[in-house]
Amino acid sequence: MVGNLFKMIPRNLPKAELHCHLEGTIPPLLAKKIAKKNNIDLPPLLFKDKNTYAWNDFTSFLEAYDQASLCLRSAQDYRDITYEYLSICALEGAIYVEVFTSPDHAAECGISYNEHVKGVAQAFEDAEKDFGIIGRAIVTCIRHFGPEKAMTVADSLIENPHPYFVGFGMGGDEGYLDYADFKPVFDKVAAAGYPCTTHAGEHFGPETIIEAVNTLPISRIGHGVRISEDAKSVKEIAKQGIVLEICPGSNVSLGIYQSYSEHPFSYLRDAGCKVTLNSDDPPFFDTNIGKEYEKAHTNFGLNIEDLLDITRTAIDAAFINANEKAKLHSRIDSWKYSG
Ligand code: ADE
Ligand code: ZN
Predict the structure, then answer these.
(1) If you measure from the C-alpha of residue 337 to the centroid of ligand 1, how many angstroms do you get, rounded to a whole number?
(2) Is residue 198's pLDDT more than 60?
(3) Which listed residue, of 124, 125, 258, 294, carries a Cα 20 to 30 Å from 320's Cα?
(4) Distance (Å, whole) CA 73 – CA 58
Protein backbone atom coordinates (compact mmCIF):
# COMPACT_ATOMS: atom_id res chain seq x y z
CA MET A 1 0.00 0.00 0.00
CA VAL A 2 1.26 3.49 -0.85
CA GLY A 3 0.20 6.89 0.41
CA ASN A 4 -1.54 7.76 3.62
CA LEU A 5 -4.44 9.84 4.78
CA PHE A 6 -2.45 12.95 5.52
CA LYS A 7 -0.57 13.21 2.27
CA MET A 8 -1.99 15.12 -0.68
CA ILE A 9 -2.96 13.10 -3.71
CA PRO A 10 -0.38 13.57 -6.51
CA ARG A 11 -1.83 15.79 -9.19
CA ASN A 12 -0.66 13.42 -11.91
CA LEU A 13 -2.34 10.35 -10.39
CA PRO A 14 -4.29 8.95 -13.39
CA LYS A 15 -7.94 9.89 -13.08
CA ALA A 16 -11.06 9.32 -15.14
CA GLU A 17 -14.43 11.03 -15.19
CA LEU A 18 -17.69 9.57 -16.51
CA HIS A 19 -20.21 12.19 -15.38
CA CYS A 20 -19.89 15.84 -16.32
CA HIS A 21 -22.31 18.08 -18.25
CA LEU A 22 -20.51 20.03 -20.96
CA GLU A 23 -22.88 23.00 -20.75
CA GLY A 24 -22.22 22.97 -17.00
CA THR A 25 -18.43 23.21 -17.39
CA ILE A 26 -18.24 26.77 -18.72
CA PRO A 27 -16.32 28.94 -16.25
CA PRO A 28 -17.99 32.37 -15.73
CA LEU A 29 -15.05 34.21 -17.31
CA LEU A 30 -15.24 32.05 -20.45
CA ALA A 31 -19.05 32.43 -20.64
CA LYS A 32 -18.62 36.22 -20.50
CA LYS A 33 -15.83 36.16 -23.11
CA ILE A 34 -17.86 34.05 -25.56
CA ALA A 35 -21.02 36.10 -24.90
CA LYS A 36 -19.12 39.32 -25.64
CA LYS A 37 -17.76 37.91 -28.89
CA ASN A 38 -21.30 36.88 -29.89
CA ASN A 39 -22.86 40.21 -28.82
CA ILE A 40 -25.02 38.49 -26.23
CA ASP A 41 -25.97 40.10 -22.92
CA LEU A 42 -25.90 37.47 -20.19
CA PRO A 43 -28.09 38.55 -17.25
CA PRO A 44 -25.88 40.24 -14.59
CA LEU A 45 -27.78 38.33 -11.88
CA LEU A 46 -26.38 35.09 -13.35
CA PHE A 47 -23.13 35.83 -11.53
CA LYS A 48 -22.43 36.11 -7.81
CA ASP A 49 -18.95 37.43 -8.48
CA LYS A 50 -16.53 37.27 -11.38
CA ASN A 51 -15.73 33.58 -10.90
CA THR A 52 -19.01 32.31 -9.44
CA TYR A 53 -22.51 31.64 -10.73
CA ALA A 54 -25.47 32.72 -8.56
CA TRP A 55 -27.98 30.02 -7.59
CA ASN A 56 -29.42 28.72 -4.35
CA ASP A 57 -31.29 25.47 -5.00
CA PHE A 58 -31.62 22.78 -7.66
CA THR A 59 -34.20 24.73 -9.69
CA SER A 60 -32.19 27.95 -9.71
CA PHE A 61 -29.04 25.92 -10.45
CA LEU A 62 -30.72 24.39 -13.54
CA GLU A 63 -31.84 27.88 -14.61
CA ALA A 64 -28.35 29.33 -14.19
CA TYR A 65 -26.90 26.38 -16.11
CA ASP A 66 -29.40 26.97 -18.95
CA GLN A 67 -28.65 30.71 -19.03
CA ALA A 68 -24.87 30.30 -19.05
CA SER A 69 -25.10 27.96 -22.04
CA LEU A 70 -26.97 30.66 -23.99
CA CYS A 71 -23.63 32.37 -24.70
CA LEU A 72 -22.88 29.70 -27.33
CA ARG A 73 -23.49 30.36 -31.02
CA SER A 74 -21.22 28.14 -33.13
CA ALA A 75 -19.24 24.93 -33.52
CA GLN A 76 -16.16 26.98 -32.58
CA ASP A 77 -17.79 27.96 -29.25
CA TYR A 78 -18.51 24.30 -28.55
CA ARG A 79 -14.92 23.51 -29.44
CA ASP A 80 -13.62 26.21 -27.09
CA ILE A 81 -15.68 25.20 -24.03
CA THR A 82 -14.82 21.51 -24.55
CA TYR A 83 -11.12 22.28 -24.97
CA GLU A 84 -11.12 24.47 -21.83
CA TYR A 85 -12.76 21.66 -19.84
CA LEU A 86 -10.35 19.02 -21.16
CA SER A 87 -7.33 21.21 -20.46
CA ILE A 88 -8.40 21.59 -16.81
CA CYS A 89 -9.01 17.82 -16.52
CA ALA A 90 -5.61 17.07 -18.06
CA LEU A 91 -3.93 19.44 -15.60
CA GLU A 92 -5.62 17.44 -12.83
CA GLY A 93 -4.18 14.18 -14.19
CA ALA A 94 -7.26 12.89 -16.00
CA ILE A 95 -6.45 10.48 -18.81
CA TYR A 96 -10.04 9.84 -19.89
CA VAL A 97 -13.31 11.79 -19.67
CA GLU A 98 -16.80 11.21 -20.93
CA VAL A 99 -18.79 14.40 -21.16
CA PHE A 100 -22.56 14.72 -21.49
CA THR A 101 -23.52 16.97 -24.38
CA SER A 102 -27.04 18.30 -24.83
CA PRO A 103 -28.22 18.85 -28.42
CA ASP A 104 -31.31 20.55 -26.93
CA HIS A 105 -29.13 23.24 -25.38
CA ALA A 106 -27.23 23.59 -28.68
CA ALA A 107 -30.55 23.95 -30.54
CA GLU A 108 -31.64 26.72 -28.11
CA CYS A 109 -28.55 28.62 -29.33
CA GLY A 110 -29.31 27.95 -33.00
CA ILE A 111 -26.55 25.33 -33.29
CA SER A 112 -27.43 22.18 -35.23
CA TYR A 113 -26.70 18.66 -34.01
CA ASN A 114 -23.88 18.21 -36.53
CA GLU A 115 -22.32 21.60 -35.77
CA HIS A 116 -22.21 20.77 -32.07
CA VAL A 117 -20.66 17.37 -32.87
CA LYS A 118 -18.08 19.05 -35.09
CA GLY A 119 -17.01 21.50 -32.36
CA VAL A 120 -16.82 18.91 -29.57
CA ALA A 121 -14.97 16.38 -31.77
CA GLN A 122 -12.42 19.03 -32.81
CA ALA A 123 -11.71 19.74 -29.13
CA PHE A 124 -11.23 16.01 -28.43
CA GLU A 125 -8.64 15.86 -31.21
CA ASP A 126 -6.87 19.04 -30.15
CA ALA A 127 -6.78 18.04 -26.47
CA GLU A 128 -5.51 14.54 -27.20
CA LYS A 129 -2.72 16.04 -29.32
CA ASP A 130 -1.87 18.74 -26.76
CA PHE A 131 -2.31 16.84 -23.47
CA GLY A 132 -2.74 13.12 -24.24
CA ILE A 133 -6.20 13.13 -22.64
CA ILE A 134 -8.92 11.04 -24.34
CA GLY A 135 -12.37 12.66 -24.51
CA ARG A 136 -15.62 11.03 -25.58
CA ALA A 137 -19.21 12.31 -25.61
CA ILE A 138 -22.47 10.92 -24.28
CA VAL A 139 -25.41 12.50 -26.03
CA THR A 140 -27.96 13.47 -23.42
CA CYS A 141 -31.66 14.20 -23.42
CA ILE A 142 -33.26 16.38 -20.77
CA ARG A 143 -35.96 14.61 -18.80
CA HIS A 144 -38.16 17.66 -18.16
CA PHE A 145 -38.19 18.46 -21.91
CA GLY A 146 -40.22 15.24 -22.30
CA PRO A 147 -40.04 11.99 -24.31
CA GLU A 148 -40.70 13.55 -27.71
CA LYS A 149 -37.66 15.82 -27.55
CA ALA A 150 -35.71 12.90 -26.07
CA MET A 151 -36.60 10.81 -29.13
CA THR A 152 -35.37 13.61 -31.44
CA VAL A 153 -32.04 13.63 -29.57
CA ALA A 154 -31.85 9.84 -29.80
CA ASP A 155 -32.59 9.92 -33.54
CA SER A 156 -29.89 12.55 -34.10
CA LEU A 157 -27.34 10.28 -32.43
CA ILE A 158 -28.43 7.20 -34.35
CA GLU A 159 -28.65 8.93 -37.74
CA ASN A 160 -25.32 10.77 -37.42
CA PRO A 161 -22.84 8.23 -36.08
CA HIS A 162 -19.50 9.65 -34.98
CA PRO A 163 -16.66 7.62 -33.45
CA TYR A 164 -16.33 10.01 -30.48
CA PHE A 165 -20.06 10.08 -29.67
CA VAL A 166 -20.26 6.81 -27.86
CA GLY A 167 -23.35 6.64 -25.67
CA PHE A 168 -26.70 8.02 -24.58
CA GLY A 169 -27.89 9.49 -21.29
CA MET A 170 -30.62 11.46 -19.54
CA GLY A 171 -30.28 14.37 -17.08
CA GLY A 172 -32.70 17.03 -15.88
CA ASP A 173 -35.52 17.02 -13.36
CA GLU A 174 -35.97 13.53 -11.89
CA GLY A 175 -39.46 14.48 -10.71
CA TYR A 176 -40.79 14.77 -14.26
CA LEU A 177 -42.64 11.70 -15.63
CA ASP A 178 -41.52 8.08 -15.12
CA TYR A 179 -38.65 6.05 -16.54
CA ALA A 180 -41.27 3.99 -18.42
CA ASP A 181 -42.16 7.12 -20.43
CA PHE A 182 -38.60 7.17 -21.80
CA LYS A 183 -38.31 3.42 -22.37
CA PRO A 184 -39.02 3.57 -26.15
CA VAL A 185 -36.23 6.18 -26.48
CA PHE A 186 -33.64 4.17 -24.56
CA ASP A 187 -34.66 0.89 -26.22
CA LYS A 188 -34.16 2.46 -29.64
CA VAL A 189 -30.67 3.79 -28.87
CA ALA A 190 -29.67 0.53 -27.20
CA ALA A 191 -30.91 -1.46 -30.23
CA ALA A 192 -28.70 0.76 -32.39
CA GLY A 193 -25.72 -0.38 -30.28
CA TYR A 194 -25.24 2.54 -27.88
CA PRO A 195 -24.62 1.92 -24.17
CA CYS A 196 -26.80 4.02 -21.87
CA THR A 197 -26.86 5.74 -18.49
CA THR A 198 -29.48 7.83 -16.71
CA HIS A 199 -29.61 10.16 -13.74
CA ALA A 200 -31.49 8.49 -10.89
CA GLY A 201 -31.45 8.57 -7.12
CA GLU A 202 -30.02 12.08 -6.83
CA HIS A 203 -33.23 13.71 -5.58
CA PHE A 204 -35.47 10.66 -5.22
CA GLY A 205 -35.19 7.46 -3.26
CA PRO A 206 -34.06 3.85 -3.88
CA GLU A 207 -37.32 2.72 -5.47
CA THR A 208 -36.73 5.09 -8.40
CA ILE A 209 -33.24 3.69 -8.96
CA ILE A 210 -34.56 0.13 -9.01
CA GLU A 211 -37.31 1.33 -11.37
CA ALA A 212 -34.68 2.83 -13.70
CA VAL A 213 -32.60 -0.35 -13.68
CA ASN A 214 -35.62 -2.57 -14.27
CA THR A 215 -37.06 -0.37 -17.02
CA LEU A 216 -34.16 1.00 -19.06
CA PRO A 217 -31.22 -0.76 -20.80
CA ILE A 218 -28.57 0.92 -18.63
CA SER A 219 -25.23 -0.24 -17.27
CA ARG A 220 -24.59 2.91 -15.22
CA ILE A 221 -26.53 5.32 -13.04
CA GLY A 222 -25.82 9.04 -12.74
CA HIS A 223 -25.53 9.69 -8.97
CA GLY A 224 -27.59 6.78 -7.58
CA VAL A 225 -26.43 7.72 -4.07
CA ARG A 226 -29.87 7.51 -2.49
CA ILE A 227 -29.86 3.74 -3.09
CA SER A 228 -28.06 3.80 0.28
CA GLU A 229 -31.43 4.30 1.99
CA ASP A 230 -32.41 0.68 1.41
CA ALA A 231 -29.99 -2.17 2.14
CA LYS A 232 -31.81 -4.68 -0.09
CA SER A 233 -31.64 -2.31 -3.07
CA VAL A 234 -27.93 -1.68 -2.40
CA LYS A 235 -27.34 -5.45 -2.61
CA GLU A 236 -29.28 -5.62 -5.86
CA ILE A 237 -27.26 -2.83 -7.50
CA ALA A 238 -24.03 -4.43 -6.29
CA LYS A 239 -25.13 -7.84 -7.57
CA GLN A 240 -26.06 -6.49 -10.99
CA GLY A 241 -22.72 -4.65 -11.23
CA ILE A 242 -24.41 -1.33 -12.05
CA VAL A 243 -21.78 1.40 -11.94
CA LEU A 244 -22.57 4.50 -9.90
CA GLU A 245 -21.34 7.82 -11.27
CA ILE A 246 -21.01 9.50 -7.91
CA CYS A 247 -20.51 13.28 -7.66
CA PRO A 248 -19.86 14.04 -3.96
CA GLY A 249 -19.07 17.75 -4.41
CA SER A 250 -22.27 18.27 -6.39
CA ASN A 251 -24.32 16.35 -3.80
CA VAL A 252 -23.01 18.44 -0.92
CA SER A 253 -23.32 21.74 -2.86
CA LEU A 254 -26.92 20.95 -3.85
CA GLY A 255 -27.75 19.98 -0.25
CA ILE A 256 -28.56 16.32 -0.97
CA TYR A 257 -26.22 15.76 1.99
CA GLN A 258 -25.36 18.46 4.50
CA SER A 259 -21.72 17.39 4.75
CA TYR A 260 -19.19 14.83 3.51
CA SER A 261 -19.56 12.90 6.76
CA GLU A 262 -23.19 12.20 5.82
CA HIS A 263 -22.32 11.19 2.26
CA PRO A 264 -22.84 7.44 1.55
CA PHE A 265 -19.83 7.03 -0.78
CA SER A 266 -17.89 4.80 1.63
CA TYR A 267 -20.98 2.83 2.65
CA LEU A 268 -21.76 2.04 -1.00
CA ARG A 269 -18.15 1.14 -1.79
CA ASP A 270 -17.88 -1.10 1.26
CA ALA A 271 -21.19 -2.76 0.29
CA GLY A 272 -19.60 -3.87 -3.00
CA CYS A 273 -21.17 -1.30 -5.34
CA LYS A 274 -19.02 -0.17 -8.25
CA VAL A 275 -18.33 3.50 -7.54
CA THR A 276 -16.63 6.26 -9.52
CA LEU A 277 -15.82 9.92 -8.75
CA ASN A 278 -17.12 12.77 -10.90
CA SER A 279 -17.52 16.55 -10.96
CA ASP A 280 -21.02 16.97 -12.55
CA ASP A 281 -20.93 20.76 -13.24
CA PRO A 282 -17.50 21.95 -12.05
CA PRO A 283 -17.70 25.77 -11.84
CA PHE A 284 -21.17 25.66 -10.28
CA PHE A 285 -19.92 23.51 -7.41
CA ASP A 286 -16.37 24.89 -7.17
CA THR A 287 -14.94 21.54 -8.16
CA ASN A 288 -13.14 19.53 -10.84
CA ILE A 289 -12.06 15.90 -11.17
CA GLY A 290 -8.81 16.53 -9.24
CA LYS A 291 -10.68 18.15 -6.34
CA GLU A 292 -13.11 15.19 -6.24
CA TYR A 293 -10.23 12.70 -5.89
CA GLU A 294 -8.66 14.95 -3.27
CA LYS A 295 -11.95 15.18 -1.34
CA ALA A 296 -12.37 11.41 -1.49
CA HIS A 297 -8.95 11.14 0.13
CA THR A 298 -9.65 13.66 2.89
CA ASN A 299 -13.29 12.84 3.58
CA PHE A 300 -13.62 9.15 2.75
CA GLY A 301 -10.07 8.05 3.59
CA LEU A 302 -9.22 6.71 0.13
CA ASN A 303 -5.49 6.22 -0.40
CA ILE A 304 -3.57 6.20 -3.66
CA GLU A 305 -4.24 2.52 -4.42
CA ASP A 306 -7.96 3.01 -3.66
CA LEU A 307 -8.08 5.99 -6.01
CA LEU A 308 -6.27 4.10 -8.77
CA ASP A 309 -8.93 1.40 -8.36
CA ILE A 310 -11.64 4.06 -8.77
CA THR A 311 -9.98 5.09 -12.04
CA ARG A 312 -9.86 1.43 -13.14
CA THR A 313 -13.57 1.01 -12.35
CA ALA A 314 -14.34 4.08 -14.47
CA ILE A 315 -12.30 2.77 -17.39
CA ASP A 316 -13.99 -0.65 -17.16
CA ALA A 317 -17.38 1.11 -17.24
CA ALA A 318 -16.46 3.56 -20.02
CA PHE A 319 -18.46 3.49 -23.23
CA ILE A 320 -15.43 2.58 -25.38
CA ASN A 321 -14.12 -0.67 -26.84
CA ALA A 322 -11.84 -3.24 -25.18
CA ASN A 323 -8.79 -2.14 -27.15
CA GLU A 324 -9.15 1.50 -26.02
CA LYS A 325 -9.74 0.35 -22.44
CA ALA A 326 -6.59 -1.81 -22.52
CA LYS A 327 -4.49 1.21 -23.58
CA LEU A 328 -5.89 3.31 -20.74
CA HIS A 329 -5.38 0.49 -18.23
CA SER A 330 -1.74 0.24 -19.22
CA ARG A 331 -1.33 3.99 -18.57
CA ILE A 332 -2.74 3.45 -15.07
CA ASP A 333 -0.62 0.35 -14.43
CA SER A 334 2.59 2.02 -15.57
CA TRP A 335 2.05 5.14 -13.42
CA LYS A 336 4.50 5.27 -10.56
CA TYR A 337 4.03 7.09 -7.29
CA SER A 338 7.02 9.37 -6.76
CA GLY A 339 5.83 11.10 -3.60
N1 ADE B 1 -27.92 18.60 -15.35
C2 ADE B 1 -26.79 19.17 -14.95
N3 ADE B 1 -26.49 18.82 -13.70
C4 ADE B 1 -27.48 18.00 -13.28
C5 ADE B 1 -27.73 17.29 -12.09
N6 ADE B 1 -26.91 17.37 -11.04
N7 ADE B 1 -28.85 16.56 -12.01
C8 ADE B 1 -29.68 16.49 -13.06
N9 ADE B 1 -29.49 17.13 -14.21
C10 ADE B 1 -28.39 17.88 -14.33
ZN1 ZN C 1 -25.38 15.14 -13.65
Answers:
(1) 34
(2) yes
(3) 294
(4) 26
Q: Structural domain tally of the chain? A: 1
Q: Within 13 Å, how many C-alpha atoms sit on residue 77's CB side? A: 24
Instruction: Please work out whether the CB of residue 21 comes within 6 Å of at least one atom of ligand 1.
Output: yes
Helix axes 231-240, 206-215, angle to 10 degrees: 30
For the packed helices 304-317 and 289-300, what is the interaxial angle rounded to 10 degrees? 130
Which residue segment(s) compose the domain that 247 sits in? Answer: 15-333
CB atoms within 10 A of CB 2: 11
Q: How far away, in angstroms, is 114 Cα from ligand 2 center?
A: 23
Is residue 339 pLDDT above 90, yes or no?
no
SS3 of residue 220 by DSSP: strand
- Order of strands across the sheet that contains 220-223: 15-17, 94-101, 134-142, 165-171, 196-200, 220-223, 243-246, 274-277
Backbone phi and psi for residue 140, each to the nearest 5 degrees, phi listed first: -125, 135
In a domain, 4, yes or no: no
What pLDDT score does 4 carry?
A: 47
Q: Mark whether 202 is an active-site residue.
A: yes
